[in-house]
Write a structure and sequence with these properties.
Blueprint: E1 7-12, H1 19-30, E2 34-36, H2 37-42, H3 47-55, H4 61-72, E3 80-84, H5 90-98, E4 105-110, H6 113-121, E5 123-125, E6 132-134, H7 161-187, E7 193-198, H8 203-217
Parallel strand pairs: 1-3, 1-4, 2-3, 4-7
Antiparallel strand pairs: 5-6
Helix pairs in contact: 1-8, 6-7
Length: 218
């Protein structure tokens, strides 16, 4: 197999499975940028996009793909990157392939919906950096304050029960096609590994599992 030693990772999976947390830890481990599509979209001054995100709806493929492509053109992505929250549709997955954006590793973190809902309702975010905490599973050192800046943490507007259920419903419609696509890409030798991970484990154990898979190929 032709192995690209650049570490180019995507995390797929339902919201609340821990993709963001693992992306942050992996980015620090390999000194490559984590690219959160959700964070990029939230920085856009566009009321329509903001409304769609807050309601749990998907943004159009053309908008999301253009944003991702522009971000991947930056120099800090030359030696690898981590895509958190992209692709979320089969069209977005195909977009990467059509544009010769090489992906080495695909990690699909899975959790039962009951646990996902509990996690998202307890999620807290540092708005300016995107750092993610949880009041039970990954609490900040000081209650409701970011560990690095000491600034107040917030709950995202889309972390409410109705929006969460809507987002999970959309995810369930999309994920099978994406999974099948990347399994086929592995068979064709275009992707080194597709791996499903049980997200209901300690954060460090999940990270070790991911690192072991990456290090096997590099």
């Amino acid at each position: 197999m032709n192995i690209n030693r650049n570490i180019r990772v995507i995390f797929i999976g339902a919201p609340g499975t821990g993709k963001g947390t693992q992306s942050d830890l992996l980015a620090e481990k390999y000194k490559i940028p984590k690219i959160s599509v959700g964070e990029l979209l939230r920085k856009l001054v566009n009321n329509d996009i903001s409304d769609n995100i807050n309601l749990g709806d998907l943004i159009s493929d053309s908008v999301v793909c253009n944003i991702v492509k522009m971000r991947l053109c930056k120099n800090d992505c030359d030696n690898g990157f981590i895509l958190d929250g992209f692709p979320r549709s089969i069209n977005q997955a195909q977009y990467l392939t059509i544009n010769n954006i090489k992906i080495n590793f695909v990690f699909n973190i899975k959790l039962p919906h009951k646990i996902i809902i509990k996690r998202l309702l307890g999620r807290r975010v540092h708005k300016s950096s995107g750092r993610i905490y949880h009041i039970k599973y990954n609490p900040p050192i000081v209650n409701n304050l970011d560990n690095i800046t000491g600034e107040q943490l917030i709950s995202r507007k889309d972390d409410n029960i109705n929006v969460i259920k809507h987002r999970l419903k959309i995810h369930n419609k999309q994920i099978t096609n994406i999974v099948n696509y990347y399994k086929q890409e592995v068979k064709l030798g275009n992707v080194n590994s597709y791996m499903e991970i049980d997200g209901d484990k300690p954060i460090n154990l999940i990270l070790t599992e991911i690192i072991n898979k990456i290090n096997y190929f590099i």
